[in-house]
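Q: I'm writing up a methods section and want to include an example of the input and output format. Could you take the sequence below and give the corresponding predicted C-alpha cells, formatted cleanly so I can copy it straight into the document?
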Amino acid sequence: ENALQEGDVPTLSPHHGTATGSVIISHDRAGVQGVSDVLGVAPGARLVPIRCASHVILVSGVSLSRAILYSIVTGADVISMSLGGFGSRFLQSVLKLAILRHIIPVAAAGNAFPLVVCPAIYDETIGVAAVNRHDDKMMPGNARFVSASGCGVDIAAPGAGVNRAYWDDDLAPITGASDGT
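A: Here is the clean output for your methods example:
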C-alpha cells in the first residue's frame, strides 16, 4: 500500500503545489487560455507531485521524510520543498541519503517568519530566500510578505509578483501573481 496516494492528505493549501510546480516546469502554453503567462525555470523537466502535508507549515518531519524517501526510490534528480517548519534528525538523515544518491534538495527559506525554517536550514538543502525585482530583500517596508534570511539561505530568487498557475473555484486553470519563497 502506498501511503502517499492522491487524496490521502486533506489540505488547507490545495493550490500550493500546483502553483509552485508551475513556477518550476511550465512551458510555453500560448494556445491554452488563461495559462500563457507562466514560464517555468525548467520547462523540460518532469514533475512528480507528492502531497505530504496538509499545509505549508511543517509540524513534523515524518511525512516529509517519507516523501523524500519516495522521491529517492522513484529516481528524482531534484526535490523541491515549498514548505517548512520543524525538522528532526530523521529528516536530516533522509536528506543526507538523497545527497548520497546525487539528488539535489531545494527548500524554501520561509515566509512571514524571520528565521530560516527546516528543511532549508539544513546544510543538505539549498535554502532559497526571496527578493523583489530590485534585488531588495523581502522585508517589512518593501514587500507584502517577509522572506526569511540569514543562516541557511544559500541563494535568493525572485519572489514578489511571480506569475503562477492554479485552479479557480470552478476548477478552471488560471494564472496570477503571488509572493513567496
